[in-house]
Write a structure and sequence with these properties.
The chain has 197 residues and is mainly beta. The protein is 11% helix and 29% strand.
């Protein structure tokens, strides 16, 4: 399996370009993701379409809220997280994802979790999970995705969560689930802001 790793990114402001002007070329120096936090407060969420950002590794807000990039295609891929913090100690957190599939009345059908990513505020998971669900049941199940930080062997805290499917936690999560159902055979990736525990 191929592994992807972000080497850098750059914010390019197109507002100053003359639409009637001639062709313009520029060289971009890529920066580590963490260096762009200072310009993040200047970026507007409306300027970054959720569907456009879904196909890239760039998160939605750059504002420091925990986010998760998820790919759906009759399977679930936790791709990467963004802005995970460990407020209790002054170091990047050890995190893992937990997925729980619930039936229409809220009973657990199955569960699984990722391996732990140690000391990463923007972890790359790239783990795919298959659930035994018939196509006609996709409207009747709920997928609960939560991210936990492990503080010690027995102590863990939830970073945040989202739900998709029948009981989606928000409009974006419902749209992502619907797009997955309408795009058989294609993976649909979207960033989701995690809700606080």
């Amino acid at each position: 399996m191929s592994r992807e790793r972000m080497m850098g990114e750059k914010v390019l402001r197109l507002g100053a370009l003359d639409p009637d002007g001639a062709k313009m070329e520029t060289a971009l120096v890529l920066e580590p993701c963490s260096n762009l936090k200072t310009v993040g407060s200047q970026l507007s969420l409306s300027a970054v379409s959720r569907s456009d950002s879904a196909s890239s590794n760039q998160s939605l807000s750059h504002g420091g809220v925990p986010e998760l990039l998820i790919g759906l295609s009759y399977n679930v891929e936790l791709v990467r997280g963004s802005h995970f913090r460990n407020l209790a100690v002054n170091r990047p957190p050890d995190t893992y994802g937990r997925l729980i599939l619930l039936n229409s009345v809220g009973h657990e059908i199955s569960r699984c979790k990722t391996s732990v990513r140690r000391g990463q505020p923007n972890p790359v998971y790239k783990e795919t999970f298959m659930f035994q669900v018939a196509l006609f049941q996709l409207s009747d199940v709920t997928l609960l995705v939560s991210i936990y930080t492990r503080r010690s062997m027995k102590r863990e805290e939830m970073v945040g969560w989202i739900a998709m499917g029948q009981n989606s936690s928000g409009e974006e999560e419902q749209l992502h689930w619907q797009d997955m159902k309408e795009s058989p055979g294609q993976q649909v990736c979207r960033w989701h802001v995690l809700l606080e525990a």
